[in-house]
Specification:
- The chain is about 40% helix and about 15% strand.
- By secondary structure, the chain is an alpha/beta fold.
- The chain has 2 domains: about 200 residues, 2-enoyl-CoA Hydratase, Chain A, domain 1 (Alpha-Beta Complex); about 70 residues, Lyase 2-enoyl-coa Hydratase, Chain  A, domain 2 (Orthogonal Bundle).
- Helix 1 links the parallel strand 2 and strand 3.
- Helix 3 packs across helix 4 and helix 8 packs antiparallel against helix 9.
- It is globular, with a radius of gyration of 19 Å.
Length: about 280
């Protein structure tokens, strides 16, 4: 599929998906929605793609959310479509936000405002790197527009129920420092550096064995919020599936032979924090 409202780029094993409507703060319209579904499906099915980065074009916005001018073209309008959406048979309003089975790592490089649906897309990622001027908020609160792309579900899982409810109810906008303090943002970088830092991190992740990352992410996602016993059952399923892969045999060999995957003889480890 040829894209015009997003960019889809591959840099080695890293895929970069960019909201590409900087003239309207990278808001997501009906065409963007279709392109996002196609792009994320391509990443999910690409065996050579290990990590995805999502970001926005320009230096002002990650994404300001749904395109309100064309909003009625985004939402289900017939009783049949509403029923299908209610049953979870549609991918989302502004892209495939309802997909929960992408177990490859996803990094958000937040290069400006992340409002409403843009905040929801930031929450779609596993790791969020924000530029120092980035801001976050459920700004759709001011116009009586609800969250429809995961904000009420992912935001509480990331920052905790109480903080999420305050942001959801008030629509208050927070800066990058506060976002980092409450756990919404993992790291703050200077203006213009979020994509560069995300690429560095993605390339490091690509060097790690991938199967255990996928099964651990799956277990964390599927088990979150469930009773501990159920979460442990899911973890066991994912771990036991990992045991059937040749990569775990190779990992055990490397450990026993002290063949460290990210350390050369006489050199420090490249794993952050490891000595």
């Amino acid at each position: 599929m040829a894209f015009s409202e997003i960019r889809y780029e591959k840099k080695g094993e890293v895929t970069i998906i960019t909201f590409n409507r900087p003239e309207v703060h990278n808001c997501i319209g009906p065409k963007t929605n279709i392109e996002l579904i196609s792009a994320w499906d391509a990443f999910r099915s690409d065996k050579d793609a290990k990590v995805a980065i999502i970001t926005g074009a320009g230096d002002k916005a990650f994404s300001s959310g749904g395109d309100i001018k064309n909003g009625m073209d985004l939402v289900p309008s017939t009783s049949a479509e509403i029923a299908a959406h209610n049953r979870g048979e549609r991918p989302g309003i502004i892209g495939p936000s309802r997909w929960t089975d992408i177990y490859k790592p996803i990094i958000a490089a937040v290069n400006g405002v992340a409002y409403a649906g843009g905040l929801e897309w930031a929450c779609f990622a596993d790791i969020r790197i924000a530029e120092e001027h980035a801001t976050f908020g459920v700004t759709c609160r001011r116009w009586n527009i609800g969250l429809a792309d995961g904000g009420t579900q992912r935001l509480p899982r990331i920052v905790g129920f109480g903080r999420a409810m305050e942001l959801i109810i008030t629509g208050r906008v927070i800066d990058a420092k506060e976002a980092e303090r409450i756990g919404l943002v993992n790291e703050i970088v200077p203006a213009g550096k979020s994509l560069e830092r995300a690429l560095d991190l993605a390339e490091f992740i690509c060097k790690l064995p991938q199967p255990a990352i996928h099964t651990d992410k799956e277990a964390a996602i599927r088990g979150f919020g469930r009773p501990l016993s159920e979460g442990l059952r899911i973890e066991a399923q994912c771990f036991n599936r990992l045991l059937a892969t040749p990569e775990i045999t190779e990992g055990r060999r490397r450990f026993l032979e002290r063949d460290h995957p990210d350390r050369k003889e006489g050199e420090p480890s490249v794993t952050p924090g490891m000595k």
